């Protein structure tokens, strides 16, 4: 079985490894011809697991290649989802399987509203990886991945995913899991970007801790109004535990801001604020963070 992966970042590269280990062939769809031309000539990827480098055989291609796509994993930034999939439409078939593996929310519903005839799943993961170079990925943790169908009469898993040797949890209702990942991202990522700090440093300053608590209470209100039970404990307790467990990490949002890239603030805190407005719930702490991150990033403030 052949899977295409749209998005050759850390997570997309990690899934290339997962899929090839399960016996599938993989094509990575890179952004453009320049990226392809600068890829190492030996092609493929290298993955570091527990200090040992291994080769990951995969093909490389650009979005305008002419090969058909029957199975597609989308691991792009959330804001690129619709335009990236639209660019691939000439290559997709009516029954093409699409899996969205991304941060944030909103893009899943937007894709459904396009009424494409593809079979669609959404997934969320705590797997962790980072790129040393564009073709070299370090696997930090396999994490846990939850996946569920977004379209009617769809199986719990895409074709061949039952063979993946990772902690994979198929579910009939993926929305609560997306909300839980969103909640943690709301509680940590914008604050690390605002304070320019590692995840663990959020707990070292009373002002940062207080702001996180305000953010968490607001997120819980919006989630509850949506019929979502986040965690057995409070979001603040869970978010603090996650921040401590990843204390040395720089969040993806902070890295985007530092490198002058567009962040996913609109699909994380922005989505939360839009839901709050729809439900007539005041979320001043999250609104403040949304505007602060927009101010830090010209690309975000222009959106």
UniProtKB/TrEMBL annotation:
InterPro entries: 6-PGluconate_DH-like_C_sf, 6PGD_dom2, ApbA, Ketopantoate_reductase, KPA_reductase, KPR_N, NAD(P)-bd_dom_sf. It catalyses: (R)-pantoate + NADP(+) = 2-dehydropantoate + NADPH + H(+). Residues 174-296 form the Ketopantoate reductase C-terminal domain. It is an enzyme of class 1 (oxidoreductase). Catalyzes the NADPH-dependent reduction of ketopantoate into pantoic acid. Belongs to the ketopantoate reductase family. This is 2-dehydropantoate 2-reductase. It comes from Marinobacterium marinum.
